[in-house]
Amino acid sequence: EVQLVESGGGLVQPGGSLRLSCAASGFTFSSHWMSWVRQAPGKGLEWVANIKQDGSERYYVDSVKGRFTISRDNAKNSLYLQMNSLRVEDTAMYYCARVEGSSSSWWKFDYWGQGTLVTVSS
Amino acid sequence: DIQMTQSPSSLSASVGDRVTITCQASQDITKCLNWYQQKPGKAPNLLIYDASNLETGVPSRFSGSGTGTDFSFTISSLQPEDIATYYCQQYGNLPWTFGQGTKVEIK
């Protein structure tokens, strides 16, 4: 059974940092692109970042470029999101999602974690 | 960035009704579109990928169609357990973007 379990969320002051983790199990982690998707309270979904299987390619939404870094450790079956210079508008539930597909076919978020809540407030 | 516009933003229908949600992309995305269901307090769940392919394990009352800029999502016979918010999502170009969501309620 595929499982994605996020951790690391919490309350942080504006300008602070936080590192989110996502522990993956039940599938070959090193074979999949992975993503972070967030959802502000009462709002819609926003894709945040993608990372290729070997970490050689990373993509970000403009609003987090230069502040957030997605990374992975395939030996530990883990995905990370290092968040620096946090802003009030980064307050959201952060979901880890498995990406299935390829550039020659389709892409889809086929499994999601339960999310970890990040609150940026003074 | 590609903007995804869903309509309606909310709807109320009776059990057994046919429900249709539309999603319009701001530019041609061919068939690069997925649909997700999100129940309150839960993570999203993939229903339809590549505009019209039903994800494994998803009931056949859910369907999707469209290509280019105009897409639709249909529940052929609304069930009580379908109460949720539905999102379209394009993967034609980065950044991948979602529609604003359609909240479906029972009348």
Summarize the entry for a quick read.
Helices cover 0% and strands 53% of the residues of chain A. By secondary structure, chain A is an all-beta fold.
Explain this structure to me?
The complex is a heterodimer of chains A (122) and B (107). With 122 residues, chain A is mainly beta. Chain A contains no helices and eleven strands. In chain A, the strands form two sheets. In chain A, strands 2, 4, 5, 6, 9, 10 and 11 form a seven-stranded mixed sheet that branches. A four-stranded antiparallel sheet of chain A has the order 1-3-8-7, with no helix packed on it. Chain B is mainly beta and 107 residues long. Chain B has strands at 4-7, 10-13, 19-25, 33-38, 45-49, 53-54, 62-67, 70-75, 84-90, 97-98, 102-106. In chain B, the strands form two sheets. In chain B, strands 2, 4, 5, 6, 9, 10 and 11 form a seven-stranded mixed sheet that branches. In chain B, strands 1-3-8-7 form a four-stranded antiparallel sheet, with no helix packed on it. Chain B is globular, with a radius of gyration of 13 Å. The model of chain B has no long low-confidence stretch (mean pLDDT 98). The chains are: A mainly beta (122), B mainly beta (107).
